[in-house]
């Protein structure tokens, strides 16, 4: 992977700059330009009911098409964007673009599944977060029930404020999901008091099925817990028929993963939806 290789070269020089990595500086500058020059894009990955095969959701995932490095993966630039605070304007762009796309799909008569947008803690902690969401929904004339926010367990670190924000979002009608469930430190007793409808089992657990019995048991336990506490449980990172079968047998409600499709740009997603009009067949 090209960007990584270059990254290593740049790391070599970092000592001469008092520990500031040139690669990082370059990416940071690049990221500012990316926003300005429309190099950021959203890809979309469907979420599929594991009982009916129907598409019940769509996650928006950011992509950066860098003029020299090609596609820089979010795992590389999102942490940097969080560190520098750039995640706030980037997050605003994502939110607006995702809502615009969802509205366009509504206009085109494409089924009314919500669009799921990833929100990092830094965005969530921004004083104008709620305001901005309300403004985008208003601008796009989008039903709040068509927007789902994926947050991580790390919001629990500031429980009082998070609880307040989440309840405001709930009041607006926005849907809420916990992403990467099981990898953070959430207290179940608090989680249960927050207005969250959905938990997403992290793909690191799903992908160990059937290779690690202990992880299999963990997935099973999360599904059971979710069912008992009335969450919609969604498994991410489904790659094999075997994993799909396991999840269906254990009554996991929804799934997402390469087995159905990789994330795709909007026009390709439209073709995917057209091909799978009557649902995915298992
Ligand atoms: P995430 O929200 O947990 O998203 C799931 C990741 O798993 C995505 O990686 C997706 O492409 C990938 N994935 C989906 N199905 C499979 C599968 O079957 N196998 C494997 N191996 N991977 C699968 P992606 O797009 O590289 O995004 C990585 C992370 O970057 C996301 O994890 C999310 O935390 C963050 N991210 C992506 N877009 C945004 C964004 O717009 N805003 C923020 N704040 N974070 C974002
Ligand atoms: Mg996510
Ligand atoms: Mg996830
Ligand atoms: Mg993740």
TrEMBL record:
Q: Where is each EAL domain found?
A: 24-277
Q: Which domain of life is it from?
A: Bacteria
- The name this protein goes by in its record: EAL domain-containing protein
Q: Which organism is it from?
A: Neobacillus rhizophilus
Tell me the part of the parent protein that is shown. Answer: 460 to 741 of 741
């Amino acid at each position: 992977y090209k960007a990584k290789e270059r990254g290593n070269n740049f790391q070599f020089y970092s000592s001469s700059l008092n520990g500031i990595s040139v690669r990082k500086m370059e990416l940071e500058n690049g990221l500012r330009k990316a926003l300005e020059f429309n190099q950021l894009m959203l890809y979309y990955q469907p979420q599929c009911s594991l009982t009916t095969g129907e598409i019940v959701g769509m996650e928006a995932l950011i992509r950066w098409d860098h003029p020299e490095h090609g596609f820089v993966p979010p795992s590389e630039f999102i942490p940097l964007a969080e560190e520098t605070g750039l995640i706030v304007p980037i997050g605003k762009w994502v939110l607006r673009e995702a809502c615009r796309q969802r509205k366009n799909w509504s206009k085109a008569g494409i089924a009314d599944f919500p669009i799921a947008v990833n929100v990092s803690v830094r965005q969530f902690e921004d004083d104008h977060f709620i305001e901005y969401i309300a403004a985008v929904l208003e601008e796009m004339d989008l039903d709040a029930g068509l927007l789902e926010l994926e947050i991580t367990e790390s919001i629990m670190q500031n429980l009082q404020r998070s609880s307040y924000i989440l309840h405001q979002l709930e009041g607006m009608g926005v849907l809420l999901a916990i992403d990467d469930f099981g990898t953070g430190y959430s207290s179940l007793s608090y989680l249960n008091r927050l207005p969250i409808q959905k938990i997403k089992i992290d793909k690191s657990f799903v992908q160990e099925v059937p290779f690690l019995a202990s992880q299999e048991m963990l997935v099973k336990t999360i599904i059971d817990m979710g069912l008992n506490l009335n969450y919609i449980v969604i498994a991410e990172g489904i790659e094999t028929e075997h994993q799909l079968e396991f999840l269906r047998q254990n009554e996991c409600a929804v799934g997402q993963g390469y087995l159905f499709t990789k994330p795709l740009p909007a026009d390709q997603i439209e073709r995917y939806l057209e091909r799978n009009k009557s649902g995915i067949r298992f």
